[in-house]
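User:
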Amino acid sequence: MTALTLSTAAAPGLRADAIVIGVAKGTAPGSGDLVVAPGAEAVDKAYDGRLAGVLETLGATGAEGEVTKLPAPAGFKAPLVLAVGLGGEPEKDTSYDAEALRRAAGVAARTLTGTKKAAFALPLADGAGVGAVAEGVVLGAYSFDAYKNSAQNAAKAKKGKAPLAEAVLLGGKPRDAAHKAALARAAAVAEELNRARDLINMPPNDLDPEAFATLVQAAAKDHGIKVQVLDEKALAKGGYGGILGVGSGSASAPRLVKLTYTSSKAKKHLAFVGKGITYDSGGISLKPAGHNETMKCDMSGAAAVFAAVVAAARIGLEVNVTGWLALAENMPSGSATRPGDVLRMYSGKTVEVLNTDAEGRLVLADALWAASQEKPDAIVDVATLTGAMMLALGNRTFAVMANDEAFRSTVFEAAEEVGEPAWPMPLPEHLRKGMDSSVADIANMGERMGGGLVAGLFLREFVGEGIAWAHLDIAGPAFNEGGPFGYTPKGGTGTAVRTLVRLAELTAAGDLG
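Assistant: Predicted structure:
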């Protein structure tokens, strides 16, 4: 991970490989075409106040994600100035939107791959600015190299392709309590989010349900989190028919993992439930060619829940958080669940399986009911659940559904606050009828149109009465098949981790809604 430090040192005298500054579009009446963002005053002064003009000559516009490199001025101990676009002008005076700072820092960290030390002279108006830049740096510097042999990794480092090693946040005050707390929080959240990315990127031959559970146990032990793992025998004894049914076709047995973080000062209890299909072939309802290659990411919800619980523990939030990871591998075989089979779920309800590729809702149903038995104040499930939601919202936005409108708004606002694009979606009652079954209490499929909402309605059936619940369908943004952007890499993204952590913070503060 990239090391983070705060410093009040002046940019010219700091020994580093690069100085990162921010520039923005000058859209206010009377402004120039380019604005040098606060934090870069010493750099601008060294260019005799003409830095914006120099950058414009080089083609800089201040657009979000744009990077312009130029030699550092005489007298600087760093040889390079890297200007990164922030987009528009600041919201209030010199205060820039946290997500703009986060993305700019991420772009800079990714651009500076192979650099040992960089100084970030971006706007740090307060602790929020410190946290945003720190998060962006750690997330943007992420690299997944675990499966490249040591010789290749050594060659990569020699050629200057290793991730940014150290980032100094200029203007951050090492003795300021708010700045120190913001840096520590950002490091904890970003590092755990990167842990989730690692899990998502792991190949399924190394991350089956048992291996996933083992990794969770090791990490939880380091942070004082209790872990309970139900293996196939315990699941059978407990009547977890959904998880067992989905995992029945695989040589790798399913698991239900429960993580428990408790605070002696907690007054509220949150439960997070994650879909953890370590590989999804579709089962007997086999996916067509071209749809299997990225299905190692179908455990992204479980990875997000795991990371969020660990982050809550690292930050020391005054709230009790329970994480439930419903882990299974969905494979076709002679023992696999067939379309037409009826499963008896942990709740006692029976489900007619019409499509074995609608498996995520089956494992989540058991985990939701298990979470409900502890009567938490709220439950949030996270799942790469439906292609229908990708059609509705695209590849960068996840859906938020809920059984309570106020809670849905709280979750949506938390996601927006931390920079995770989300959109509130309804649960239309008329779609429930499509899941009526002539042989069971409910079918796992309903109307094709509105399929993402149908899945949400199915899950709602397995939430305990009187418990606020929200469902995050992260099918679109969980895995980035395109090129990197901002602080988001290609591959696993770790989406929803920051939303869950923010919800835990709001709950600890008594602002759950």
